[in-house]
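Example S7 (structure tokens).
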């Protein structure tokens, strides 16, 4: 398949730059691949599609305020850093701008007077940066900004500190939110639990690969960035019981899918695991673990569109997306969502 097979016309004004007034008031398109149909509902109808004995799997990663600014020691030139991953205490992998003017050895002064040193440059455009303190997350809480996706064309403000996190985010490490989870409220989750719906947490720390375009025409040539994931033994065991008893496993977001499908096992059904994954799901692959997917609307020609097309025929997905455009549904991180049955 080619990247152009996942293209569609998306008016720029449909890309949501602000969240809905309330988390659960977004619209939800429900797509039924077997019937070949789709309809638009409210996200508040989501619980009606779950049955006792089903399982809901959510990514508990937490977005860190990974965008950091400094000034070059001596010249005072402004620099921007996007922290991606901790390599060891005090040493982080990051994208830095302006890259060419920040060779190894460059020292950047932060707003609190502390310093950051460019320790090394990598061939992939990233840099290793060294802080004076090993407590970098605490420093980011004081000085950093939430790194909103570039297509929003704005800096984060105070409201994003809350709304660009899911209500179940507990494990810091992501530079982008698992956005399908942004629709849930504590009240809905409590109601689902009371209705006999098992809820489980996995972790996948979303990295920069979620924003990178596919630069090859044949999608088989694309390579994903690695991301850190974890599926706990007790979660794998519970999901095996759900599967064996006939319950449905619904993944909240593509990151939950990627975690579960990374841990798929032909004999055990699902095995626990932790490490790094670069899994790239695209047709004709079909999910081995996940029965249903709740996901936001994605950008044309993206790896996320390709993953969604593993759950329903590509032509039906594109037809549903064209309907979403016609109905002026909101796209991407702060947008509306789709439930694929």
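Recovered sequence:
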């Amino acid at each position: 398949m080619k990247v152009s097979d996942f293209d569609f016309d998306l008016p720029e004004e449909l890309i949501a730059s602000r969240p809905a007034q309330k988390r659960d008031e977004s619209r939800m398109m429900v797509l039924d691949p077997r019937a070949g149909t789709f309809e638009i509902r409210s996200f508040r109808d989501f619980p009606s599609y779950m049955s006792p004995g089903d399982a809901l799997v959510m990514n508990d990663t937490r977005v860190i305020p990974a965008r950091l600014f400094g000034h070059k020691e001596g010249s005072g030139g402004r620099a921007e850093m996007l922290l991606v991953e901790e390599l060891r205490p005090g040493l982080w992998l990051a994208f830095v701008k302006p890259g060419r003017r920040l060779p190894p050895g460059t020292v950047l002064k932060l707003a609190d007077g502390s310093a950051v040193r460019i320790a090394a440059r990598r061939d992939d455009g990233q840099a290793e940066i060294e802080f004076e303190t090993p407590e970098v997350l605490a420093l980011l809480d004081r000085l950093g900004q939430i790194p909103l996706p570039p297509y929003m064309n704005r800096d984060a403000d105070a409201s994003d500190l809350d709304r660009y996190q899911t209500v179940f985010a507990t494990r810091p490490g992501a530079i982008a939110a698992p956005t399908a989870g942004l629709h849930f409220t504590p009240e809905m989750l409590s109601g689902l639990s009371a209705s006999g719906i098992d809820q489980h947490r996995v972790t996948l720390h979303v990295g920069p690969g979620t924003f990178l375009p596919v630069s090859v025409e044949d999608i088989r040539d694309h390579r994903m960035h690695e991301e850190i994931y974890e599926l706990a033994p007790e979660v794998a065991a519970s999901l095996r019981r759900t599967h064996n008893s006939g319950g449905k496993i619904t993944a909240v977001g593509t990151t939950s899918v990627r975690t579960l499908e990374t841990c798929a096992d032909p004999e055990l059904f699902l095995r626990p695991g932790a490490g790094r994954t670069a899994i790239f799901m695209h047709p004709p692959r079909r999910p081995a673990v996940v029965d249903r997917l709740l996901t936001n609307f994605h950008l044309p020609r993206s790896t996320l569109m390709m993953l969604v097309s593993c759950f329903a025929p590509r032509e039906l997905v594109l037809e549903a997306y064209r309907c979403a455009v016609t109905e002026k549904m909101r796209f991407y991180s702060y947008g509306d969502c789709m439930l694929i049955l």
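Notes on this example. Helices lie at 136-143, 160-163, 186-194, 233-244, 254-262, 303-308, 314-326.
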